[in-house]
Amino acid sequence: MTGADRGDQPGAASVRQRLWGAQRAAIEGALHTLDPDLAALITDVVYETVLARPGLDLKTRELLAVTALIGVGGERELKTHLRGALRCGATVGELKEVIIQAAMFVGFPKALAAMRALRGLEPPPAPDAAEVG
Amino acid sequence: MTGADRGDQPGAASVRQRLWGAQRAAIEGALHTLDPDLAALITDVVYETVLARPGLDLKTRELLAVTALIGVGGERELKTHLRGALRCGATVGELKEVIIQAAMFVGFPKALAAMRALRGLEPPPAPDAAEVG
Amino acid sequence: MTGADRGDQPGAASVRQRLWGAQRAAIEGALHTLDPDLAALITDVVYETVLARPGLDLKTRELLAVTALIGVGGERELKTHLRGALRCGATVGELKEVIIQAAMFVGFPKALAAMRALRGLEPPPAPDAAEVG
Amino acid sequence: MTGADRGDQPGAASVRQRLWGAQRAAIEGALHTLDPDLAALITDVVYETVLARPGLDLKTRELLAVTALIGVGGERELKTHLRGALRCGATVGELKEVIIQAAMFVGFPKALAAMRALRGLEPPPAPDAAEVG
Amino acid sequence: MTGADRGDQPGAASVRQRLWGAQRAAIEGALHTLDPDLAALITDVVYETVLARPGLDLKTRELLAVTALIGVGGERELKTHLRGALRCGATVGELKEVIIQAAMFVGFPKALAAMRALRGLEPPPAPDAAEVG
Amino acid sequence: MTGADRGDQPGAASVRQRLWGAQRAAIEGALHTLDPDLAALITDVVYETVLARPGLDLKTRELLAVTALIGVGGERELKTHLRGALRCGATVGELKEVIIQAAMFVGFPKALAAMRALRGLEPPPAPDAAEVG
């Protein structure tokens, strides 16, 4: 039922691979260092069970994740999924549209903060727990 | 700059027409009755300026709106955009996926409430302000 | 330091009297029935200590309370302070402006819900815990 | 790693049994009817993986769940976990304390709404999706 | 209908001029650099359409904005409107009252964070996107 | 009715003493410097009235406070109550469980942020307003 049941097969790892790219091993290590049990839940449930479900393509899923995170607040997690969306083929222009639209539903202050996060995206540094979420 | 500048042309009304269908006139009447100034802002800014922007297709925009509203709470507005998404070609299965994924980012209670809203969608009644948002 | 220290003098009761009017005794009874300890905290701290502070007039304080409640959600508490604002001399037009402005900061869905609450204000029914908050 | 891996053994079902009591089968049926995939996630991840973890007793876990839900809003899910807490040995007096304390951290309006939910708890009706969350 | 229709006349710019003072041109430049479309929406809709509406004086509007932002979180946007309120004639004492009252409706932690923001207000640095929102 | 009525007796100060330990005087000084009126409200109402109430032990109360703060956001206040929980006898393992469970109710991003706050707890520095909340 969960990704853990499918084991660490290349097919099962496709969500993490597509979203984390070359940094996958380092990100997983950082998450495990933060907390191995929370790491396992995130890996198995969020990424390999839910985000891996068919029915919505992964790029759309990442745009939805960005939208949810604009409402939640928290720049770190938002940047993680902004990068994930770009790795899935979203353009900066599409992410800009997601943010402008979010202003209508959660207000302009949260949209402004998100736009600053988008413009402040650098190439990812040495992976630490900041890369995950 | 805004939809108001484009006037009430069929092209400019395409977002409201696509999302509200045959109920468009009645919905706009109900919104105007609720408050003419808030109605004008919503019509001009939310629908005809922002949701009408190119760069993201309208079906994706409605899935993003649903996601934002799952986080915000409030069943009425969520149902409006669930219906809008269906009118744009989203399937109930895709909306189910949007909701399941939202549980990862805003928690299971809000996702449960959204799933009840999705399953409780009836054909829209006599349009009132409930249709808009 | 708190309203309780000032006792139940007419001066000290002025905030509750101004906001609850002729329903004051009934509202306090309903709140006490809901929970006597929470009732005492709300009466002493919210109303007679904080809302009674000089520095901001009570009408402004009620407009601020309405704004906070638009963000928090929850129609019942919002209606209580919409009525309180009207009893303090705010007009329906001013409350309309508070709601329209709130859309900019917390999004249009919450503002729409608040506008429905404003338009749905009836004369208060038999006071119960719904009148307080 | 998840409850699903442990199968539907009486030991593994202990969290759902303790929290849902005699209504367990009916509640699970209602949740499955709402959405079988969301139901499976909630059953396996929320209840049988996370709430079943050692390290915190189940009564404390339910008090924490109640606190989280006071902040989230949503009366239905809150009532579910108020009942779960009572089934775990919490007293109405302890739940009252949880609510009064919540006022300090998330404000009095949310605490008031929660106190109404607590006082409005009836014996659970025919189980439907309202019992879960 | 919107401020954009009124053009960049001194009368139409009065809201931005009153709230941003001598930094207006620099702030607008920084916002435009962040994103020209979001900048135009904020300028036209938030400031020159909604905040420019009659019915509430601008000082009251800024106190309401501060209250909304205490609930939303996010120190940057809060500081922008704390400064705007001061420029409109609000006193630090009045802003203190707004914050203390907010504790009743959204909890003490958010009020504490807002009080730190108020006490940490410095004269505005070289204007960047931080000044807007 | 409130802690203030009981005066600054050792018994009445037990909540602050237990939660703030040797830093109590410095913390109270920092809070007073931030704002004497907000400080008095927090001291009298939050700590010495509500958290001092019988019915729930203080360790449980701090776990509930941590849960509330995970939902609210804001790392500073969360760290204050993580430290308070540890001073009350909670273990890092128990706090980890509180955080993992919070993911189910408010989503994984907020839980991740809280886990980083827990792992980033250092011995408290020179007390300032950061220690209170």
Task: Tell me about this structure.
Six copies of one chain form a homohexamer. Chain A has helices at 3-6, 14-20, 24-34, 36-51, 58-72, 75-87, 92-106, 108-119. The longest helix of chain A has 16 residues, at 36-51. The two termini of chain A are 22 Å apart. Chain A has 133 residues and is mainly alpha-helical. Chain A has two domains: 1-53, no CATH class; 56-124, Up-down Bundle (AhpD-like). Chain A contains eight helices and no strands. Chains A, B, C, D, E, F: This is Carboxymuconolactone decarboxylase.
How is the main sheet of chain A built?
Answer: none
| Proportion in β-strands of chain A | under 5%
The CATH superfamily of the largest domain in chain A bears the name: AhpD-like
Topology order of chain A in helix (H) and strand (E) letters? HHHHHHHH
- Rg of chain A: 15 Å
Quaternary state of this entry equals homohexamer
How does CATH name the architecture of the largest domain in chain A?
A: Up-down Bundle
Q: Briefly, what CATH class of the largest domain in chain A?
A: Mainly Alpha
C-alpha termini separation of chain A: 22 Å
Largest interface: A-B, 30 and 30 residues
- The number of helices of chain A is 8
The domain count of chain A comes to 2
Content-based structural category of chain A: mainly alpha
Looking at the structure, the CATH topology of the largest domain in chain A is AhpD-like
User: What would you call the shape of chain A?
Assistant: globular
